[in-house]
Design brief:
Elements (H helix, E strand, L loop, with lengths): L1 E5 L4 H17 L4 E7 L3 H4 L7 E5 L1 H4 L6 H14 L3 E7 L4 H9 L1 E11 L11 H5 L2 E3 L7 H13 L27 E6 L11 H13 L2 E4 L5 H14 L7 E2 L6 H9 L3 E5 L2 H8 L4 E5 L4 H4 L8 E5 L6 H17 L1
Parallel strand pairs: 1-2, 1-4, 2-3, 4-5, 5-6, 7-8, 7-10, 8-9, 10-11, 11-12
Helix pairs in contact: 1-7, 1-11, 8-9, 8-13
């Protein structure tokens, strides 16, 4: 069976959809699964076990320059790529006009069908064309976690029961043994960058937490995705590296596949609600996710077992609360 998944963006939403691939393959081992995604996120899907083809698009950019010759040429090339295969099932897991357009353009095999959400779920975007394009529109319980929403939609479309365990299927290198004399506990990644300023955590909290972790034997890794995040990483590193020159490291800008590999080498991750933090969840790392809004029920980690926890407070959680959550996560991680 040939199946096309349509989940274009954003990074966190793409990560939340990864278990769908593992569910399908567990129920239908011979399935061929392709995925259409924004080009910026395609490197992460290159690490996703079980995908046959990743089909990149740049709809975000194309719609800003749709009248240009270059954009029209790129759009035609994308359509040719998309329509190479005829699919038995096309599943729009996003529920927006742009994903409905991609689903409509995809070529169906004889008897094939398009599936999509029939309704909006709490806190998620939804646009009516996804329902109009679908051959089968599936109603989902509105108050549902983002991971469960995608898993349930795909399972009901294809007629299987989702696996009990949530498996993200990211392929990463084996974790090496940390041998740095100054930092015997390993390395912790700080994910401070997010697409919304109101999700950020105060820089003073990051510095205070970094000092606590340095004292406990951890080195800090400060990844970044743009110029503003780089400036924040460098400011935190400058504050921490007064005591020891390598207390905090600022790596070069990394593509998502390389970033996932770097995170996988870490003893854990502490981060705000962002796509990179969700990668830490997918990698099953000890992880604390920081929320300034009470939305962890929808996008946060599964806290059962204590290996991954969310911390919420307004206007922002205190440093001590995050520190205590990290102690609990690291203890649970060591016991696992």
């Amino acid at each position: 069976m040939k199946i096309l998944l349509v989940k274009l963006s954003s990074l966190g939403d793409v990560v939340h959809t990864l278990p769908v691939v593992q569910d399908i393959l567990a129920a239908m081992p011979d399935a061929q699964i392709d995925w259409v995604v924004e080009k910026a996120f395609a490197p992460l899907l290159a690490r996703a076990s079980g995908l046959q083809r990743v089909i990149p698009c740049e709809i975000r950019r194309w719609r800003k320059s749709f009248w240009t010759t270059a954009t029209r040429q790129e759009w035609r090339a994308f359509k040719r790529d998309l329509q190479q295969e005829a699919y038995d099932a096309v599943i729009d897991l996003q529920g927006l006009t742009k994903s409905a357009l991609v689903a409509r353009l995809a070529r169906l095999a004889p008897g094939g069908k398009r599936y999509a959400l029939a309704n909006q779920t709490d806190g998620s975007g939804y646009e009516a064309p996804t329902r109009w394009v679908a051959d089968v529109a599936i109603t989902i319980e509105p108050h549902i976690h983002a991971v469960k929403r995608s898993r349930e939609l795909a399972a009901r479309a294809l007629g299987y029961a989702p696996a009990a365990a949530t498996r993200f299927g990211l392929k990463v290198p084996a974790k090496p043994t940390m041998t740095h004399d100054h930092f015997p506990a390993g390395r912790i990644a700080f994910v401070h960058g997010t697409s919304r300023a109101d999700k950020e955590w105060p820089a003073s909290h990051w510095v205070a937490l970094g000092r606590r972790l340095n004292t406990a034997g951890y080195q800090l890794l400060l990844p970044h995705g743009n110029a503003a995040e780089l400036a924040t990483s460098e400011a935190i590193a400058t504050a921490l590296n007064g005591a020891a020159a390598d207390s905090a490291l600022v790596p070069p800008a990394l593509a998502l596949d390389a970033l996932a590999g770097e995170l996988a080498q870490c003893a854990g991750v502490i981060g705000v609600d962002s796509g990179v933090s969700h990668i830490a969840v997918a990698l099953d790392l000890p992880h604390v996710q920081i929320y300034n809004f009470d939305t962890a029920w929808r996008t946060g980690p599964d806290t059962r077992g204590g290996r991954q926890l969310s911390v919420y407070a307004q206007p922002a959680p205190g440093m001590e609360d995050v520190w205590q959550a990290w102690l609990a996560c690291s203890t649970a991680g060591a016991a696992a």
